[in-house]
TrEMBL record:
<feature type="disulfide bond">
    <location>
        <begin position="147"/>
        <end position="177"/>
    </location>
</feature>
<dbReference type="InterPro" id="IPR018499">
    <property type="entry name" value="Tetraspanin/Peripherin"/>
</dbReference>
<dbReference type="GO" id="GO:0005886">
    <property type="term" value="C:plasma membrane"/>
</dbReference>
<keyword id="KW-1015">Disulfide bond</keyword>
<dbReference type="InterPro" id="IPR008952">
    <property type="entry name" value="Tetraspanin_EC2_sf"/>
</dbReference>
<keyword id="KW-0472">Membrane</keyword>
<keyword id="KW-0325">Glycoprotein</keyword>
<keyword id="KW-1133">Transmembrane helix</keyword>
<keyword id="KW-0812">Transmembrane</keyword>
<feature type="transmembrane region" description="Helical">
    <location>
        <begin position="56"/>
        <end position="77"/>
    </location>
</feature>
<dbReference type="Pfam" id="PF00335">
    <property type="entry name" value="Tetraspanin"/>
</dbReference>
<dbReference type="InterPro" id="IPR018503">
    <property type="entry name" value="Tetraspanin_CS"/>
</dbReference>
<comment type="similarity">
    <text>Belongs to the tetraspanin (TM4SF) family.</text>
</comment>
<feature type="transmembrane region" description="Helical">
    <location>
        <begin position="84"/>
        <end position="108"/>
    </location>
</feature>
<dbReference type="InterPro" id="IPR000301">
    <property type="entry name" value="Tetraspanin_animals"/>
</dbReference>
<feature type="transmembrane region" description="Helical">
    <location>
        <begin position="12"/>
        <end position="36"/>
    </location>
</feature>
<feature type="transmembrane region" description="Helical">
    <location>
        <begin position="219"/>
        <end position="245"/>
    </location>
</feature>
C-alpha cells in the first residue's frame, strides 16, 4: 500500500513539475518578446523603470521555473533525493520572490498614472518622425486603438510642429489621430485633409489611456488568476516534493 502511495505521489509530482516547466517556458518566451520586440514596444517599457525591471524579473523567473520544472521532473522519475531537495529549496525561494513581486506591484501600481504617460509623451513625441522609435511606437498605438494622445488631442498642443506635413501647421492633432477605414498603417484615411485642418468629426478624440485600460481590463483579471494558479501549483509541488523525499529509502 505504501509503495502504491509513493508511486502515485511520484507521478503527481511529475505532473505538477511538468506544468511548472510549461509555465516557465511561457514566461521566458514572453519576457524575451517584451525585451527584444522589434516594433518598439520595449521603448515604452524602458521609459518606466518599474516596467523595465518587471520585464527582467519575468525573464529571470521564467528561466528559473523552466530549469526547476525540468529538474523536478527528473528528480521525481529517478527518485533522486538530492535533486528533490534542491528543487524544494529553490522553488521555495521563487515562491517567496513571486509573492514579494506581486505585493510590490500592487503597492506601486499608482506609478502608472495618466500624468506620467502625459509627461513622457510631451517630452519625447516627435509626431510623424518614424525614425524615432518612441514616436513610431506611439503612432502605432494610436492607430491600432483608434485613440489620440494619453487624454485626447489636447495633449499635443504643447508639442512643437515638425515639417513633415504642411497641414499639421494648422492643427495640433498629429496624423496618427485621424480616423481610418481600417485601424492599421495601411488603412485609408476617412478624410485626412479635414482631420488635419481641425475638423473633430474626422479625428479620434478619445485618449489612449482610457481605451487601453478598458481593452486590457479583462486580461488583467486573467493574468491575476493565472498568477494565483502558478503560486498554487508551486505550493503543491513543494508539498509533494517533501512527501516524496521522506518516502524514498
Amino acid at each position: 500500500m505504501e509503495g502504491d502511495c509513493l508511486s502515485c505521489m511520484k507521478y503527481l509530482m511529475f505532473l505538477f513539475n511538468f506544468f511548472i516547466f510549461l509555465g516557465g517556458a511561457c514566461l521566458l518566451g514572453l519576457g524575451i518578446w517584451v525585451i527584444v520586440d522589434p516594433t518598439g514596444f520595449r521603448e515604452i517599457v524602458a521609459a518606466n523603470p518599474l516596467l523595465f525591471t518587471g520585464a527582467y524579473i519575468m525573464l529571470a523567473m521564467g528561466a528559473m521555473l523552466f530549469l526547476l520544472g525540468f529538474l523536478g521532473c527528473c528528480g521525481a522519475i529517478r527518485e533522486n533525493k538530492c535533486l528533490l531537495l534542491f528543487f524544494f529549496m529553490f522553488i521555495l525561494l521563487i515562491f517567496l520572490a513571486e509573492l514579494s513581486a506581486a505585493i510590490l506591484a500592487f503597492i506601486f501600481r499608482e506609478n502608472l498614472t495618466r500624468e506620467f504617460f502625459t509627461n513622457e509623451l510631451k517630452k519625447h513625441y516627435q509626431r510623424n518622425n518614424d525614425t524615432d522609435v518612441f514616436s513610431a511606437t506611439w503612432n502605432s498605438v494610436m492607430i491600432t486603438f483608434a485613440c489620440c494622445g494619453v487624454n485626447g488631442p489636447e495633449d499635443f498642443e504643447a508639442i512643437p510642429h515638425l515639417p513633415y506635413s504642411s497641414l499639421e501647421k494648422v492643427t495640433a492633432t498629429p496624423e496618427a489621430c485621424c480616423q481610418r477605414e481600417l485601424q492599421s498603417r495601411e488603412g485609408m484615411f476617412v478624410n485626412k485633409e479635414a482631420c488635419l485642418s481641425g475638423n473633430e468629426r474626422f479625428q479620434n478624440r478619445q485618449g489612449c489611456y482610457t481605451v487601453i485600460l478598458n481593452s486590457f481590463e479583462t486580461y488583467v483579471y486573467l493574468a491575476g488568476a493565472l498568477a494565483i494558479g502558478v503560486l498554487a501549483i508551486e505550493l503543491f509541488a513543494m508539498i509533494f516534493a517533501m512527501c516524496l523525499f521522506r518516502g524514498i529509502q
